[in-house]
Amino acid sequence: MQDGVMQAWLESSHLAGGNMAYVEELFEVYLDDPTAVGDEWRHFFDQLPSDDGRADTKLSTIREQFREAAKNKFKQAGTTVAAAPDQKQVKVLQLINAYRFRGHQHANLDPLDLWKQPTVPDLTLEHHELSKDDYDKEFNVGSLAVGKDTMKLGDIHKTLNQIYCGSIGAEYMHIVSTREKRWIQQRLEGVLGRPEFSQDLQQRILKELVAADGLEKYLGSKFPGAKRFSLEGGDSLVPMLKALIHRAGEQGSKEVVIGMAHRGRLNVLVNVLGKKPADLFDEFAGKHAVNKGSGDVKYHMGFSSDFATKGGDVHLALAFNPSHLEIVNPVVMGSVRARMDRLGDSTGSKVLPITIHGDAAIAGQGIVQETFNMSKTRAFQVGGSIRIVINNQVGFTTSKREDSRSTQYCTDIAKMVQAPIFHVNADDPEAVVFVTQLALDYRNTFQRDVMIDLVCYRRHGHNEADEPSATQPLMYAKVKQHPVPREVYAERLLSNGVIKDKDLEQLVSDYRDLLDKGEIVVDEFREMKSHSSDWKPFIDNEWNVEYDAKISLEQVKALGKAASTVPDSHALHSRVGKVYDERLKMAAGDKPADWGFAETLAYATLVDQGVHIRLTGQDSGRGTFFHRHAVLHNQEDASTYMPLNNIRDGQGKIEIYDSVLSEAAVVAFEYGYATAEPKALVMWEAQFGDFVNGAQVVIDQFLSSGEQKWGRLCGLTLLLPHGYEGQGPEHSSARLERFLQLSADHNWSVCVPTTPAQVFHMIRRQHLRPVRRPLIVMTPKSLLRHPLAVSELEELTTGVFQNAIAEVDELTPKKVKRVVFCSGKVYYDLLQERRKREQEDVAIVRIEQLYPFPAEEVAEILKDYQHVKDFVWCQEEPQNQGAWYSSQHNFWAVIPKGAELTYAGRAASAAPAVGYLTEHNKQQSQLVDDALTIK
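Given the sequence above, the corresponding structure tokens read:
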């Protein structure tokens, strides 16, 4: 405790012995919530020890300091003791604090009035040794932000109930930051939980509720029984979203990206984004046909438009979403980050992410936790997001809370990042709009996530053909009797004289007329301008499109030197220093290029051309296998230096981040980024290729089929370490077979490069070729330092990526009796063993791109072997894995007529690899021998 502060308080006699019980109780209030006491007391308590660890502050050490201070004061003052303050004053402050902590548990949140929470003792007067007999007594209100210093207890109690137990239930006391808590308190308490809205705004809200209700009724009558995942019961989502967009535009946002699942999606498309109802009706009638591709169901589709606000037009983008409901959330965040980077927006002030969740899904799907965990990290932060839950209190048919989650609220997951949570009754649209404004202002002020729990109901079953009363009889007995939100709010405005009956009738009639005409119903809709990067150069291009890949030897040497030069002041680890010394020799042409140098050089050539590169992964800065070392850590002060960002002035930017320990959310984020920014080279690297199976949903639903279903182009590159080095299951296979099974419609390329020159050309091709489709790379582990896996600088300056590579040794074609096809690391095992045997009758052909299969290139290579009848596919993976089952039809198609194709590799296995090194070596030796031995 600071001496000056202590002395000042001693002199004011606040710490006199008779006041100690009061001070201790006040201190306990402060420990629960520093904002609950007045500024002077908070300042005093802030000076106490253990300010950074308040759990320790409750120990007797602090109490002893109070008592010692009181004794000293008593000695100084003789027999005079200050009068003890009213002990009930502290109880009143505790009552105020209790409402801030737990008032939400008594809030009127459920429109159906079925959700009854148990009585919370902390919210009773008796719990705080108060009673209605104290109602007329005047008390200091502490930090209660109601514009008064003192109030009667009766008024305090009434005010607290109005603020914290009305249509809004606020959870924010879990937030550590006192500043953030005070900010929320002032906003909530300053308007007593309910602001005054103008009649114009009230009429606009009603019009939006009429639209939300009108569309659902129209669809229900026009297309009875068709799935539409109705918004009915949660109609307030429409005025909520429109209020969000209006306020975001007024505060400077230029783009809003929305992610949501099925519930209410059609309503949002028509009544918020401005999709033509006629187009939606055509989809219902089955008349709509995409130009190419498979298409998708109407409640998965995305949409883009512009929306007029007082701050200018805001570009809206609703992300496409599969039925894996929550997986769209990191996709949205990635799209937002790309737009932020394009606009030079580091805080999120210009781009707003909005994600809309179901109550069962947000509590049930782990991708939500992953996305929250990313929200404040360097690589993935977007300045906070607005997260809305359409809480219809039932997931599919599960309504019992103990069956759907283990927490009180479905939104409790948000507390892991200290996001404030505002529960709001969806039948009170003014409260909905108020918390919407509050949430956005909080997000824009603190750049943090915020959650809105829109507590509503589902008027129909999970879909419109479902019968919900079979499993929720009590709920749906209530639903059938309950008026729709439009009727609830209209009655309120009618009773307040804001509208007349004829006004409501006119709104309903006008909206239906617009639907009959199929016209756009959103007043704020504007024809879309060019808000995104230009995708035109990449549309309708196929793999064989020409591109300029020329680079001179002088450029390669200069860029190699620049990418390998580190300031003397940056102290490197000895092993890293050796890597960079070797790279300088490679740059000069004195030593062949290894894998790490060639990859780094590829990046250097691209940033030199102004290209933006983004690479994330769990150990991507140095590379899991200690080969990349693109981010250099100073051994003296832990600062970092990236040579690739110091090639030249005005170069492109390269970002390399060690990511959070996630596959699903990170790959989804990078997919979202790549779909929003075609001018960047976006890459994700698995720690081991095996771990990509943690992102299988992203691969299945987005990466492999996004173009086919939705017309979404994406140039994301996946770097997946793959190869059998005896490291056992989960450290050998990137599950090549799964990618090949998903290969169709030229949806992506799957490559297995075997030389540094090949990886150099492959990386450059991925960006320079005007095609934006994913690249799946089986990258090596042992080849990173293999003595044969090297390339001369001249190989980097001539040619392009070779989809297939012919025999490299000088064999006489006529002597060849067998041709072995292979991909990846096993090539070097085959080559070394053949050379060891001095065998000249087996040629080895490498397939470096397995999809799209390079039939023409392979056919050209096989011209010298038309006499051969014995062809073998050799792989390291088990027979039921790898490329054999998925690609052998391609091998059959290119071998000479009448030739035989056999398999050399491991036997079929449920596991991707054995776990014992001796067994691994035995298998590896056997498969090489099988491939080379002609029987």
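The first helix runs from residue 3 to 11. Try to locate this feature in the token string yourself.
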